[in-house]
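User: I'm curious whether this sequence folds into something compact or stays loose and floppy. Could you predict its structure so I can see for myself?
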Amino acid sequence: MRILYILPGFDEGGAEVHVLNLIRAMTERGHEVTLASTGGRLEAELPECVRVLHMPAEKKNPVTIIFCALKIHSHQKKFHWDIIHAHSRVPAWIAWLSSKLTGVKWIVTAHALYSLNLGIIPLKHADGAICVSEAVRNHLAAHLPDDTVIIPNGIIPPKLSHKNFPHDRMRFIIVGRLTQLKGVDVALRALSGLKGYEWTLDILGEGDERESLEALTNELGLNERVKFFGDMDRTEVEKFMAESSCMLFPSHSEGMGLVVLEALSVGLPVIASDLEALRDFALGGLIPDADVDEWRKAIERFILTGEASPFSAGKIITVDDMAVQIEEYYEKIKEGV
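Assistant: Here's the prediction. I'll summarize afterward.
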């Protein structure tokens, strides 16, 4: 099958890692893959056989959306895609218009709890939709096509294990984009009330909030304990997870929380926000996302007892499992079953 994936950009992030893993799996299964996006550093990790088309797929502008759709239309005559798979909202607009021009069926994957505004109009017009969690489908229910399925993000089985590393000091870790939605400021404020204990915090990721978070770290007097490492590849992230004591996940909103699943697969304890997307995996013990006092209590409890948010890893699937389900869905949409 010839598949066109459309993504806004291709730098580090949950949706981007999901697409990278999916593309790898699909090429291994013999499919011909093209990626259309603005570009980004993850392109270096794509299989050599993947075709890359650069276009302004992140711009919320009717002119650029039309431009991208026309570009896809012109390439369709050459590459003959069987299905177009959009990830996120602007790519959904591009895919919708491209489908009208080319006659190729299209689907969209909803990765997050998108704002219920005009930006999600195309979703209802897709030939099919994939939601990464029940929480996403519930949130977008009125805006999705009849043929909508839930296929959770899959993980790559880790090479490292948390239990194989010595943990003689309290080392917390946060992994993700540094945006307001990730709630990193909540964790920093919570930790600032625990200076009587020995601990450090490593923050992996980049984003618009990095400068303000570094300023907050300085303001709270945590410069000697908190380090910002920027973006890292998944191998490096996995090593940090294996060597850390606990991952903090203070996010305010998530479609699924892929990084939590990755941490659990390594065996790393997690303290996480009480989000609907995580309740399928949690056995209780989630923390109100913006409550600094409750986060402080939860972190102190871990320091004293080792008690984190209880999760069950039984529902976690692999990337290969995910690819099989998506491949079957492509066939269904393509054949109009």
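Summary: Residues 132 and 152 are 4 Å apart (CA to CA). The longest strand covers residues 32-37.
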